[in-house]
Design goal:
Layout lengths: L8 H12 L7 H10 L12
Length: 49
Amino acid sequence: MAKIPAFSLGQLESICKAVGDTQNGLTASEIGRVLVECGIDDPGTGMTK
């Protein structure tokens, strides 16, 4: 698997807010789908967020 560049602190914070938002954020299956599209392994496959 190819390495991806590190996220900046601002990027990481924005991603965490979107993923962790239980009202309007992504669902677990949506998160998994985005990771697959980005070529990132999903260590939490089958788990809830």
